Amino acid sequence: MRESLFRGGGNNVTRGWIVDAAEKIKPPAPAVRLTAVDEMILDCIDNHGSVKSQTDLLDKLAEDGEIASEGSIKLRLAELKARGVLVPVKGDRGYKRA
Questions:
Q1: Residue 77 DSSP SS3
Q2: Residue 30: is it exposed, middle or buried by C-beta count within 10 angstroms (0-12/13-18/19+)?
């Protein structure tokens, strides 16, 4: 039994332990680079708490005196949601900062 461990022979328990240990050692998540539009969106969400939709975000940006196009807001919101920077608000239709 002991020889089979050193030769790499069929001990599934040892292999499972090695895989478990390797899964626990994960590299840190890469730093998220934010564009100027991303920062503008996140600042608006920080000021207002959360946003319910893209039009709600555009209205809140207008209140803050910021100007952004619908296309860039739509794209940046989708990317921020996909990267986990924005999370859904429970019990409400909208997003807030993670």
A1: helix
A2: exposed
